[in-house]
Amino acid sequence: MRVTIVRSRMVVLGIDAGGTKTVCLLADEDGRVRASARGPGANLATLGELEVEKVLYEVMEQTLASESEAPAIICVGIAGVDRAEDAAVIRGIMRRIGHKAPALVVNDALIALEAGAGTGPGVVIIAGTGSICYGRNGRGQAARSGGWGPVLADEGSGTWIGQRTVRAVMQQFDGRGPATALTPRVLAHFGIAEPQELVHEIYYRDQRRRLVVSLGGEVEAAALEGDAVARQIVTEAAAELVTAGRSVVEKLELRGVQFPLVLAGSIFRVMPSLLADVIRRVAEVAPRCQPSLLDVEPAIGAVHLALAEARGGARIPNYV
Asked: Is the pLDDT of residue 243 over 60?
């Protein structure tokens, strides 16, 4: 009698846990996505360990609900994680969740770079809820700039732009700043009638406070209408993001090198004028770079790293 042995195909999980959303992808050994799930943000620095565990558990359970094979490797790219201690916390979470697969824990900027530029030299500038610039060169070295959270950094991010916007509204209201078309837009965005009502919306209502992060579209619209205050916010955001890019390019000695520049994050999509300004300015920093807007989920980069790890070890660059 002839016996046929059917080999199970390896599957991996790739997770992108950002400040606003978490995406989990189940992929086979060829990188084909078989299942996915989405959840809220899971930033360890701002939300804490228990909330991150809850989010990761839910997206993984949803993704694996109809899968009989256990993942061989789980790669988690997570905002706010860039130290050995932070990675240890996430691996502890994964053990508590109950999955026996080894967990590769990296910064979410690395998986965005992997998704957009592959394994070679490249730089990614992320402008989402937070912001960060991350890159690597051909010598296996990495560098980063920004990404230290809304109190210490995150210039050019959705949070930074939103804070600048509501401050401009209050400055007009107080007579400390110029009139701006942002005022009626911000009031409509929050569903309020007077600027002073922003105090209650932002300081006393957690759910409403998150609307600050989503003001980029209002700034873009006002800037296109010619509002000077809005245009200044766009200009300063672009300058900050490119300054972070300059820092990484210089640390990695990439100025004269041809490399892909990946632009990722929701802010670039809702603010095309910011995207165009960053592309124009970055040409002065790295004339041979090839900028492009990331057009796939960053979690794809986590899938690629998980597969590389399962096949013998993903190459994680060391910081300069």
From this structure: yes
